[in-house]
Amino acid sequence: MIQVNNLSKTYNGTTVLNIETLEIPKGQSFGLVGNNGAGKTTFFSLLLDLIQPSTGNIINNDVQVNTSENWKPFTASFLDESFLIGYLTPEEYFYFIGDLRGQNKADIDALLAKHEEFFNGEILKNKKYLRDLSKGNQKKVGIIATLIGNPEVVILDEPFANLDPTTVNRLKKIIKELAENPNVTVLVSSHDLMHTVEVCDRIVALNKGEIVKDIQTSRETLQELELFFAV
Amino acid sequence: MFKRFIYLEWKAFTRSASFATNLGLKILIFFLIAYFSIVFLALGIGAFYILKKMNLDPLVTVNKFLIYYLLMDLIIRLLLQAIPVMNIRPLLTLPIKKPTIVHFSLGKTILSFFNFVHAFFFIPFTVVLIIEGYDVVSVILWYLAMVSLIYINNFLNILLNNKDNLFAIFVGIVLVLGGFQYYKFFDITNYTSVFFDGLFHTKWMFLLPVLILMGLYYVTFHFFKNNLYLDAGLSTKNKIAKTEDLTWLNQFGTLGTFLKNDIKLIKRNKRSKTTVIMSVVFLFYGFLFFTNKIEAYNNPIMHIFAGIFVSGGFLFTFGQFVPSWDSSYYQLMMTQNIPYKGYLSSKWWLIVIATVVSTLLASFYLYFGWHVYLTIVVGAIYNIGVNSHLVLLAGAYTKTPIDLDSSKGAFGDKKAFNINTMLISLPKLLLPVALYWIGSKVMNPNLGLAMVAIAGLIGFALRDKVFSLIEKVYKTEKYKTIDAYKQKG
Q: Is the pLDDT of residue B68 over 80?
């Protein structure tokens, strides 16, 4: 589904990301772990064509992302709160994204009803604009918005950060459900090794922009990773 | 400590994303400042002799109209003088005494150009008074009083900055007072000039403004100090939100989706709301020109200038900042399946609708004759046909993020309309003025009007072509824009 070729990103002579080759097959749930500055967000930004690669390219479902925009209809993402429109209410935001993704109001309402538990009664019909929600609640909105319109690729940057323990567990359930669908490729980045191991089939560890580990998740994965990041 | 603050300010200034792109603008502002300084300087030196020549006592005359001078100064400040916003939140928990923070923030305003420009008038005027043999001590005390009055305005502006509609109220007061005086109904200056004359003739009276200034500084200081809490002056006020469907816009497809969003954008953010108010102010701007009261404006070239402005308020205050309005969530827009065309035409339609509505509202200018209104209609055609495209094109290069959520309470800078806006507006006026001038020279003003209108129609006909061009620019500028918008403020 996603094919990375000779991808690198350099800022003023410093290489922050350098991936020679990486292939993510369709339906995989892919976890990206690494310390701060390892290049996780840079990779996602490149995948979403928010920054330009210094060399190489990424091909998302036969579409080279930095030359064509045809990846947009089947790719959904939430990197940070700059993906939210502060002056809208959560409902309006969902309908807006729905409009852009060719969904009608009923589709959105059905999706929101399905995830009512995840929202924990703090999001919908709360008479608040997105800008006035707490960081955690903003995140919930952003994550659910990526599910609108049945995307084939879902990209979540640090989805577990800022969430309370109950919500983290609910989110894991949602991601696992997504991963079970053979048509949906999920990409998740996180600092939390345990959460990532739990929801992903495959884990890639980045360090200073290079891939240092690429493992299919098994019982020993967590141990292996913890050993790697040990101080 | 102040030294460190100044260091922070300097860094914030030189490292902002808009610094490089706006350098040209900064130079322009510099020239503007130089221009006004010279004008005031000439006025300061010349006023005495001019008034003398008109057989008026210079000091008495100045004192007479001082009330209007001060009121106008306050209005201009309310409109243009931005409150220096220091990034206060991170400083609160550092070992810095709160008074220091507030003193610095207030102290910064003292250095504003809006205060210094008056010195260019008052200092030479005072010097001339002394040279012409007025009592030295009295003159100096009078000057001290003037400085205090100017600074009283400075702090009044800070205190009043967060109140809405004050600008309109003050304009109203000046208009009413001026009107009463003009029709000899009631002359406020008869009462105020007694006070201002007193500042000169009675030695101790200069203490009054000085003491008021000190008191005002004290009040402003405490107002800010007491509001220096995250849940007070630095808080964000939560408004009760209401979900609006605006389903009637659904019939317009993608365009409707964006229009819905833009309408909410304008309605729910203070900064964007001001643009609507400004369009109304622009509507009345034409009075300065068409009443023929001001000699410098009383020529046809100036009239076409006004014609463009009357219907162009929204275009200039809102249109200039597309796509900066969407800067806080620009990354979202760039990852969604968004056709640039839909996005752009939504903004374009908003501008067109606002221009048309302004033109209809401006029909009261028919009172000044059909030719005046025709000028306004032609201006509107040009705005829709050419300027609407120009602002969208220029917008593609605008890299200044707009912080919509900037409801930072007392310290927030909510002014959407500032000198920068005016400066980037000017080029959009030169072409129609030039066309009109050529037309008038070749034949008569009507040909000039026709030429401007035709330029507008040509622009309108080329709409699709221009849109594709703008689209291309947006695409090539995409990464730079994303990067610039990430750096807030």
A: yes
Distance from CA of A73 to the nearest CA of B (A): 5
B257 vs A contacts (CB less than 8 Å):
96, 99-100
pLDDT, tens digit, for every residue of A182-208? 999 999 999 888 899 999 999 999 999
**Region of residue B413 (left: phi > 0; alpha: psi -120 to 50; beta: else):** beta
- CB contacts of A51 in chain B (<8 Å) are 479, 482-483
Question: What is the share, in percent, of chain B residues with pLDDT greater than 70?
Answer: 85
Look at residue B122 in the predicted model and tell me its pLDDT. 87
Nearest CA in chain B to A131: B405
In this structure, are B222 and B253 located in the same domain?
Answer: no
Q: Is residue B238 part of a domain?
A: no
Range of the domain at B200: 2-226
B268·A129 Cβ contact <8 A: yes
Query: A55: pLDDT confidence band, cut at 50, 70 and 90?
Result: very high
B217 and B333 in a single domain? The answer is: no
Query: Is the residue at B241 inside a domain?
Result: no
Residue B312: the pLDDT is 86
CA distance A123 to chain B (A): 12
Tokens (6 digits) for B479 = 């990464």
Partners of A77 on chain B (C-beta within 8 Å) are 335
Q: Is A91 on the interface with B (CB under 8 A)?
A: yes
Clarify whether residues B322 and B456 are in a common domain: yes
Between A and B, how many CB-CB pairs are < 8 A?
86
Domain containing A174 equals 2-229
- Complex-level ipTM: 0.86
Q: B-contacting residues of A 116-155, CB under 8 Å?
A: 126-129, 131-132
In this prediction, residue B85 carries a pLDDT of: 57
Six-digit token pair at B357?
A: 């509505």
The tokens describing B280, both together, are 């109304």
Residue B479 near chain A (CB below 8 Å): yes
Averaged over B458-468, what is the pLDDT? 90
**CB-nearest partner of B479 from A51, A86, A126:** A51
Rounded to the nearest 5 degrees, what angle is found at the Cα of B241, between the Cα atoms of B240 and B246? 145
Whether residue B323 is preceded by a cis peptide bond, meaning omega within 30 degrees of 0, is yes
A84 interface with B at CB cutoff 8 Å: yes
Each residue's pLDDT tens digit, B453-462: 999 999 899 9
Which pLDDT tens digit goes with each residue over A141-176? 999 999 998 999 999 999 998 899 999 999 999 999
Residue B237 included in any domain: no
Q: What is the pLDDT of residue A43?
A: 94
pLDDT tens column, B384-407: 998 998 888 887 777 777 777 554
Q: What is the DSSP letter of A130?
A: G
Assess whether B165 and B253 both reside in one domain. no
User: Does residue B240 fall inside a structural domain?
Assistant: no
Query: pLDDT, tens digit, for every residue of B120-147?
Result: 888 888 888 888 888 888 889 989 999 9
Chain B contact set for A86 (CB, 8 A): 328-329, 404-405
Render the burial of A170-197: b for 16+ CB within 10 Å, e for the rest: bbeebbeebbeeeebbbbbbbbebebbb
Helix axes B300-317, B340-361, angle to 10 degrees: 130
CB contacts of B483 in chain A (<8 Å) are 51
pTM of the predicted model as reported, rounded to 2 decimal places: 0.73
Domain tally, chain B: 2
